[in-house]
Amino acid sequence: MKKMLVLIISLFLLTACADADTVATVGKTKITKGEFEFYLSSIKSQLSGTELKTDEDWQTQEIEGEKAIDVAKQRALEIAVNNAEYCELAKAQGIQLDSSEKNRIEEMKKQVIKSYGGEKAYKEFLKQNNITDSFIQMMCESTVYYEKIADRIKSENPVTEEEKEQYFEKEKAALGAEYKKAKHILFLTKDMTSGAEFSEEETAKVKELAEDIYRQIEDGADFDALMREYSEDPGLETNPGGYVFTAGQMVSEFEQAVDSVSAGEITLCKSDYGYHIIKRLSIEYGDIADNIDELVLKERVQKEIKQWEKDYNLAVTTNENLIKTIK
After folding, report:
1. pLDDT-derived band of residue 2, with 50, 70 and 90 as boundaries?
2. What are phi and psi of 319, to 5 degrees?
3. Beta-bridge partners for 31
4. Closest CA to 150 of 253, 299, 319
């Protein structure tokens, strides 16, 4: 009797410990604390900036009126739940992966392993972060399952140009914050072939020239004309109208400089490449029309998923108490 009681208590404790480590449950899929922290770390990297460097910054700074860490947690939880849902619902609907899709998933996983320095370093990373190889496998699978779900929804009801334009007008402010556009005049302070830095004397001359051109623009000189004359950006020929980008796609100094001005304004900054005279531009519909197509489709997918949760009895629960303890 005592042995049975000990066994029951042991099983209870094991179950309690497992549940205590579960941030959310999506159907049969459990999202562990380690997995959630993996997502959170990724989101924090995307959102990090000059004011979000330390753990204290994340606890005290705000993003659009909300504590930065809470915004990051919300986004991390949303992605974690969505990835699990894509896999659960695709399987519930009998969506099969063909051999090319399975091969693609394996290639994605190989790239992940490579990014961590190979098999040994990858396994050590998993161990240190309390995540498993099967979790990484699920993440890779979720990408393909999402695409299959989205393709089916899109084929049944294609996204129209009118829908995209309406979405742009409705979400213009948010899109303008997420997508940034700027053109720049680049004055190099390094040899782009060898990577060698210019001497202090050469760099000083480049700085002097950049500051002179900057003053000319401030006094009313034509930005585009000076850009065509002076810019050493190798991408100018293919991007004469400027670059459209999101957080993390440009060097941090460039992004921070763009963030420091409003559309139509100019600023000067220094990066590892050299000096940049930057002019921020307004985001227009044509700049992100392809992205909007995906955003409209994603909105549809999320709507369908909410209905499928009911149709397939897919329960989604979250452990808010545990989430609050995670930093």
Report:
1. very low
2. -100, 85
3. 24
4. 299
| Residue 55: partners with Cβ closer than 8 Å, 6 or more residues away | 327
pLDDT the model gives residue 269? 97
The whole-angstrom separation of Cα 21 and Cα 17 is 6
Q: Which residue from 253, 274, 259, 272 is spatially nearest to 211, judged by alpha carbons?
A: 274
Entry pTM? 0.70
| DSSP string covering 115-136 | HTTSHHHHHHHHHHTT--HHHH
**Dihedral sign from CA coordinates of 127, 129, 130, 131:** negative
The tens digit of pLDDT for each residue in 62-93 reads 877 888 899 999 999 999 999 999 999 998 99
Q: How many C-beta atoms surround the C-beta of residue 108 within 10 A?
A: 16
Please give the pLDDT value at position 215. 97
CA distance linking residue 72 with residue 323, whole number of Å: 11
Backbone phi, then psi, for 182, in 5-degree steps?
Answer: -155, 150
Partners of residue 241 on adjacent β-strands:
none
> Of 198, 179, 163, which Cα lies nearest the Cα of 272?
198
Provide the β-strand partners of residue 280: 182
Tokens (6 digits) for 315: 């329960």
| DSSP result, 142-175 | HHHHHHHHHHHHHHHSPPPHHHHHHHHHHTHHHH
All residues at 6 or more sequence positions from 252 whose CB lies less than 8 Å from its CB, including other chains: none
d(CA 70, CA 290): 30
What is the side-by-side order of every strand in the sheet holding 316-318?
A: 29-32, 22-26, 316-318
Cα separation values, 197 from 188, 190, 233, 272, 317, Å: 9, 4, 16, 9, 54
Percent share of the chain, pLDDT over 70: 93
Write the Ramachandran bin of 324: left for phi over 0, alpha for psi from -120 to 50, otherwise beta: alpha
Q: Find all residues with CB under 8 Å of 223, minimum gap 6, and list them.
A: 183, 185, 217, 266, 277, 279
